[in-house]
Please model this.
Amino acid sequence: MKIIYQSANQENQLAPSAVALGMFDGVHLGHQEVLKKAVQYAQEHNLQSAVVTMDDHPCKLTKNCMPLLITPLQSKLIALEKLGFDVVYVLHFDETLMNTRAQDYLQKFLINIMNAKYIVTGYDHYFGKDREGSPEYLRNWGLKNHTETQLVPAFSLGQTLVKSSILRDLISQGKIKEANLYLGYNFFIYGKVIKGKQLGSQIGFPTANIETAEHQLLPATGVYEAKTYIDGKTFEVAVNIGYRPTVDQNTKLSVEAHVIGFSGDLYNKFLNIEFINKIREEKKFNSIEELKQQIKFDIEMIECKNLNQ
Model:
């Protein structure tokens, strides 16, 4: 998948494209209804499949607040690649883009650069200055400019409307299994392994300290069953999200992953940690020995669960 970042001197027009347009934070089942239509249309009409999205959430400027993101940019790109896109064009959301009129937005990015022959978006996606670019606006614009457009209605799973806001609530509450149902894949955190205080190694359970992206939404504090991939192999993981109250007076929330059965060096490597389920709450133990026994129990529970699947 080719990734193109917006630049001031962008002039080259791409090959004719079927474009999915949106922020797509989470790339959840509702988003996938939109995204898959772009891929399908591209395949049926011999076009390249493309996404036009943004690096930051528009609320950062429009409402002067930055929501925590289910999929910060790098995670979003990983999820989009799995859906089979050829190109992702990443717009930088700044004052200039915020104040771009809808007509200019479509002409500059969708026509002049993306060479869009088909544009698909969700029922609630707006673009351009003051949200001028409504779904109805896009439909009328497409008719005038001989560009096929499609609006995808709201998507529900059971009685629940699948939206990024609902997923943020579920993840922040630690309801990972439920969140994964609406995502259509395992919620994951992608980050670099950095040096910590090596407290895990000192008690016999070395952990990889994950440096998360800015504005990354983290699950509620606690211990989680997860998995990761190293050198083509899948490893079970016990992840602690919290403040390590037994061994450290940590005031900063940390993500520590004990990769079960792995003994190599992970420093400076990037890991993709997929969350499966919450095991227990984080708690302060009376002694290091008591903590060690609990960690051992957590690991055994994860291993036994996977053996029984």
